[in-house]
Amino acid sequence: MKTISLFLWLLKLLLTLLDTEGKKLQSEVDYYILSVIRRRGGGGLTLASTGNKTCPLDVVQEQNEVSNGLTLMFSPVNPKKGVIRVSTDHNIEFSAATICVQSTVWKLEYDESSGQWFFTTGWVEGNLGRGTLSNQFKIEKYEDDNNLDGYRHLALSDVPFKVMFKKA
What InterPro entries does the annotation carry (predicted)? Predict the structure, then answer.
């Protein structure tokens, strides 16, 4: 029995995401998402108008490498004790007011001209069910860092965007 308990404890530890202070990532707590490569990789994530549109605002990386960007929160689709875990579905929402009369919850949007999926905002948090996969995101481990599939406009890509989470 002790072996099984130890195994389950180690598995739980491996699936837990940690912030820059080594503490468990919590739901409904403000964090910054920062590039692991700070000097050459730019700053934190923020919102910006891209292309010819004003709204919704898109998820982009700050050009200024010392900027933490905007704070955001994770909301698990199926919350478990408020802890954010690897490979589980989450809504991600910036904790900021904007000029757009829309939410700052992330979603994916397909751009026909580039043939690429980009991260943008405007989803309704908690809107689950059929056809809502474009607003549910997973954080995965990549090498020894975290990966969000990914001024740089966040987009789905084969090249991982290695990130860390700093509590605000």
Answer: Kunitz_inhibitor_STI-like_sf (IPR011065), Prot_inh_Kunz-lg (IPR002160)
